[in-house]
């Protein structure tokens, strides 16, 4: 999908409502939840299969392929969390890595011009990610979260503000406990979008939850 690195503007547009999900983030059928989230207006999807009872090996590959085909049907780019080999095997649109995974530099060499996202928690990690070729950074946890068992302390929007006050214009997506009720500060502080799991994946009406968030994000410009 990418013959050159994605332009910043296009990356910022994709980050507006970034849905992340794995099999253990849902109580109902993940395929149905993803269809509904797409109907509600998500702009980007990340396959994040980790934690208790997560699939692995062949099962994980086939599950990922099913979700990827739903994204393809609706022209939503498909990002794989952590598992670079899986991303390459699927010819995914990109990879998201954390600080404990292999370096962004090493991953960039493996994935060519696919999208590369990096989780960051301080200014040094943001600057390092940019220097190593990240197309966007995830900053968080903005608010407290139960989803990521080893999440760091909630930091609010201070790092987003710090990065923007230093004149760094890297595409930023906020993550961690974000809902329609608390998404506005993420955008007002200079974030280009919000990344969510539970507020959509455990919603009784995922399409409605996604639509409410998307309309809020779009109203903030
Ligand atoms: C731990 C994570 C932090 N940020 C992001 C993203 F929102 F994509 F930037 N994804 C993750 N899996």
TrEMBL record:
UniProt domain Thiamine phosphate synthase/TenI: residue ranges: 17-200
GO biological process, one term: thiamine biosynthetic process
Enzyme Commission numbers on file: 2.5.1.3
Cofactor(s) needed for function: Mg(2+)
Pathway linked to the protein: Cofactor biosynthesis; thiamine diphosphate biosynthesis; thiamine phosphate from 4-amino-2-methyl-5-diphosphomethylpyrimidine and 4-methyl-5-(2-phosphoethyl)-thiazole: step 1/1
Keywords on record: Magnesium, Metal-binding, Thiamine biosynthesis, Transferase
Enzyme class: transferase
Catalytic activity, reaction form: 2-(2-carboxy-4-methylthiazol-5-yl)ethyl phosphate + 4-amino-2-methyl-5-(diphosphooxymethyl)pyrimidine + 2 H(+) = thiamine phosphate + CO2 + diphosphate; 2-[(2R,5Z)-2-carboxy-4-methylthiazol-5(2H)-ylidene]ethyl phosphate + 4-amino-2-methyl-5-(diphosphooxymethyl)pyrimidine + 2 H(+) = thiamine phosphate + CO2 + diphosphate; 4-methyl-5-(2-phosphooxyethyl)-thiazole + 4-amino-2-methyl-5-(diphosphooxymethyl)pyrimidine + H(+) = thiamine phosphate + diphosphate
Binding site for Mg(2+): 82, 101
Protein residues bound to 2-[(2R,5Z)-2-carboxy-4-methylthiazol-5(2H)-ylidene]ethyl phosphate: 145-147, 177, 197-198
Cofactor detail note: Binds 1 Mg(2+) ion per subunit.
Residues noted as binding 4-amino-2-methyl-5-(diphosphooxymethyl)pyrimidine in the record, renumbered to the chain: 46-50, 81, 119, 148
GO molecular function: magnesium ion binding; thiamine-phosphate diphosphorylase activity
Record HAMAP family: TMP_synthase (MF_00097)
Role: Condenses 4-methyl-5-(beta-hydroxyethyl)thiazole monophosphate (THZ-P) and 2-methyl-4-amino-5-hydroxymethyl pyrimidine pyrophosphate (HMP-PP) to form thiamine monophosphate (TMP).
Stated family: Belongs to the thiamine-phosphate synthase family.
Record-given protein name: Thiamine-phosphate synthase
Originating species: Metabacillus litoralis
This protein's encoding gene: thiE
């Amino acid at each position: 999908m990418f013959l050159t690195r994605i332009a910043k503007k296009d990356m910022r547009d994709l980050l507006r409502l970034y849905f992340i999900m794995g099999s253990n983030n849902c109580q109902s059928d993940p395929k149905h939840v993803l269809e509904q989230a797409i109907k509600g207006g998500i702009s980007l999807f990340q396959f994040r299969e980790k934690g208790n009872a997560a699939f692995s090996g062949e099962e994980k590959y086939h599950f990922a392929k099913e979700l990827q085909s739903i994204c393809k049907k609706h022209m939503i780019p498909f990002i794989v969390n952590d598992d670079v080999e899986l991303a390459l095997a699927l010819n995914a649109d990109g990879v998201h890595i954390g600080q404990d995974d292999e370096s962004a530099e090493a991953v960039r060499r493996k994935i060519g011009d696919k999208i590369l996202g990096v989780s960051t928690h301080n200014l040094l990690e943001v600057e390092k990610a940019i220097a190593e070729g990240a197309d966007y950074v995830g900053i968080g946890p903005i608010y407290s979260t139960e989803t990521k068992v080893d999440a760091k302390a909630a930091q609010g929007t201070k790092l987003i503000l710090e990065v923007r006050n230093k004149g760094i214009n890297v595409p930023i997506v906020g993550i961690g406990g974000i809902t329609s009720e608390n998404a506005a500060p993420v955008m007002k502080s200079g974030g280009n979008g919000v990344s969510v799991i539970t507020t959509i994946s455990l919603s009784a009406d995922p399409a409605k939850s996604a639509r409410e968030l998307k309309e809020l994000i779009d109203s903030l410009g």
